[in-house]
């Protein structure tokens, strides 16, 4: 699919964002977001869509992950310094809905041992899904470290709402890397729409605390 956003447009928008961050001397590492306004798309009638795509460069440098694991996965998680919860922890949490909500808020992603993945929704209820978090299966044939690295380059699920906002990187990245992530994100999101570019009203790029830069 041909993009309607030129490289120069992306470069200038990102240059303005990075300059604004430098001018305000912010200590935090601002996230860079792509925002898409929809056009002629009835979210109540048109087909629902969702998806995820791998980006070329890590968009979330400090992804906070929790493992719901069996003994082997918990041992591996502890070795890697990753928070993990075992079967006994799940039993304790299941009796405390407030704790389930707290856990859902505190982590960006959840990996679960394949042997536990059917048990977890029964134990935790809908607390994770209500927070927009989903269980990602983890087998013993996979590298836990590698899977978490992949998650850090993967956009979260996109649900159909009138304005989409997805994380494409952070202000500590090289401009060229951000441009690559933006191009992948734009083309992917547009491909999900029924009429592609005809359903796009606007495209903006912005940092967490900066002003939006219109690119389409």
UniProtKB/TrEMBL annotation:
Q: Which Pfam families match?
A: Ribosomal_L1
Q: Which GO terms describe its biological process?
A: translation
The record's annotation in CDD domains points to: Ribosomal_L1
GO cellular component terms given for this protein: large ribosomal subunit
Q: Which residues form a coiled coil?
A: none
Q: Which InterPro entries match?
A: eL8/uL1-like, Ribosomal_uL1, Ribosomal_uL1-like, Ribosomal_uL1/biogenesis, Ribosomal_uL1_3-a/b-sand
Q: What is an example of a GO molecular function annotated in this UniProt entry?
A: RNA binding
Q: Is Signal one of the keywords UniProt gives this record?
A: no
Keywords attached to this Swiss-Prot or TrEMBL record, sorted alphabetically, are: Ribonucleoprotein, Ribosomal protein
Instruction: Tell me which family the UniProt entry assigns to this protein.
Output: Belongs to the universal ribosomal protein uL1 family.
Tell me the protein's name: Large ribosomal subunit protein uL1
């Amino acid at each position: 699919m041909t993009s309607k956003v030129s490289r120069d447009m992306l470069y200038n928008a990102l240059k303005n964002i990075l300059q604004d961050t430098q001018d305000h001397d912010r200590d935090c590492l601002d996230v860079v977001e792509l925002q898409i306004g929809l056009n002629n798309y009835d979210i109540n009638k048109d087909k629902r869509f969702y998806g995820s795509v791998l980006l070329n460069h890590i968009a979330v440098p400090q992804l906070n992950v929790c493992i719901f694991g069996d003994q082997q996965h918990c041992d591996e998680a502890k070795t890697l310094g990753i928070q993990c919860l075992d079967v006994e922890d799940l039993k304790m949490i299941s009796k405390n809905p407030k704790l389930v909500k707290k856990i859902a808020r505190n982590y960006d992603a959840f990996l679960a041992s394949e042997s536990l993945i059917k048990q977890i929704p029964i134990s935790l209820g809908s607390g994770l899904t209500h927070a927009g978090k989903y269980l990602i299966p983890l087998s013993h044939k996979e590298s836990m470290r590698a899977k978490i690295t992949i998650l850090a380059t993967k956009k979260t699920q996109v649900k159909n709402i009138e304005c989409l906002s997805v994380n494409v990187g952070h202000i500590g990245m090289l401009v060229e890397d951000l441009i690559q992530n933006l191009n992948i994100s734009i083309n992917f999101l547009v491909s999900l729409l029924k009429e592609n570019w005809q359903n796009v009203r606007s495209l903006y790029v912005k940092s967490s605390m900066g002003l939006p830069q219109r690119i389409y």
